[in-house]
Amino acid sequence: MTDRALAVVRAGALTTVQDLGRPGYAHLGVPRSGALDAPAAALVNRLVGNPSDAAVLETTLNGCALRPRCPVTVAVGGAPCPVTVDGRPVAWGAPAQVPAGALLDVGTALSGVRGYVAVSGGVAVEPVLSSRSTDLLSGLGPPPLTDGAVLPLGRVTGGHARVDVVPQPAPPAELVLRVTVGPRDDWFTPAALRTFATSTYQVSSASNRIGLRTEGPSLERAFAGELPSEGMVLGAVQVPPDGRPVVFLADHPTTGGYPVIAVVRTADLPAAAQATPGTPVRFVPVRRR
After folding, report:
1. Which of 33, 40, 128, 245 is the most exposed place for a label (fewest CB within 10 A)?
2. Which of 199, 194, 246, 190 is nearest to 221 (CA)?
3. Measuring CA to CA, how many Å separate 101 from each of 19, 67, 88, 185, 236?
4. What is the pLDDT of residue 250?
5. Alpha helices in 170-286 (DSSP H)
6. Strand 88-90 with 83-85, pairing
7. Cβ 244 vs Cβ 201: under 8 Å
8. Among candidates 217, 169, 216, 196, which has minimal Cα distance to 263?
9. First to last CA, the chain
10. DSSP tag of 228
11. Rounded Cα gap, residues 133 and 281, in angstroms
12. pTM beyond 0.90
């Protein structure tokens, strides 16, 4: 077995392999997947000298622990957390050297939800439909990490960034999502549309990579019944029968029958990946561009 590999000592609550995803297959019923906080994933790749499409690890809440079989450069970003190598603290948000056989421990998030671990050479699991991303909805890609798993690493193609630390956005104290209203806003009463645009919701603990669920005032429909299933896009704000908006994230289904009241601007979705349960959420309608 090659020595360019990572052994998983502690998988954490949910750690998956993610890259840029597999957009362009919605007509086949395949979600796009990919890192929920794409800017954070891109930054840690740059810090270790990887290309932008290299696969990283996306952790959830309590991090993971890894033991490389060869010397590697790593960088941890996204949700701020303690990082140690053989028990010694190393910088978060900066390149760090990990010797072969040493234990890299990515700790519990101090704020935010999802951390990103880039390793020089990238995680080189077998791609599926041109992507190494784990898709929790369809089951495509590698399974979530388990204790004892071994992940192959790719060939190092560049040197790491010569920086001490780089700024990263803090997880949101309030999640403000700019939305374009429609296409099914006519399925809701005028009062519901006012409620949607003026109320403060909270992030639900039932949120996951498929969708950010909210708690708050229910949105009343103007019509009974359901729509025939239609195509869904990243950032669609679907309203199920309970009336609470759900924002579709990277592993969202490609079709759905509940009405979409609005669509979130793509630039606002990385913050949604880091919003902890209970975080206030506001939907702010903006003009169509």
Report:
1. 128
2. 190
3. 26, 6, 14, 56, 44
4. 97
5. 190-198, 269-273
6. antiparallel
7. yes
8. 196
9. 53
10. P
11. 28
12. yes
Strand, coil or helix: what is 267? helix
Asked if 68 and 104 touch (Cβ cutoff 8 Å), the reply is yes
62, amino acid identity = N
**How big is the chain, counted in residues?**
289
Please say whether the beta carbons of 120 and 49 come within 8 A.
Answer: yes
Sign, CA dihedral 104-108-112-113, equals: positive
Task: Give the containing element (helix H, strand E) for 77.
Answer: strand 72-78
Residue 204 identity (one-letter amino acid): S
| Angle, CA 174 vertex, CA 94 and CA 212 arms, to 5° | 85
Tokens 């994230």, residue? 249
Please give the Cα distance from 91 to 82 (Å, whole number). Answer: 8
Cα–Cα distance, 255 to 224 (Å, whole number): 20
User: Looking at residue 121, what is its pLDDT?
Assistant: 97
Mean pLDDT of the chain: 95
Helices (H) and strands (E) in the chain, counts: 3, 20
Q: Could you give the 3-state DSSP secondary structure of residue 56?
A: strand
The pLDDT of residue 152 is above 90: yes
Three-class SS state of 248: strand
Angle in degrees, CA 131, 274, 278, rounded to 5: 140
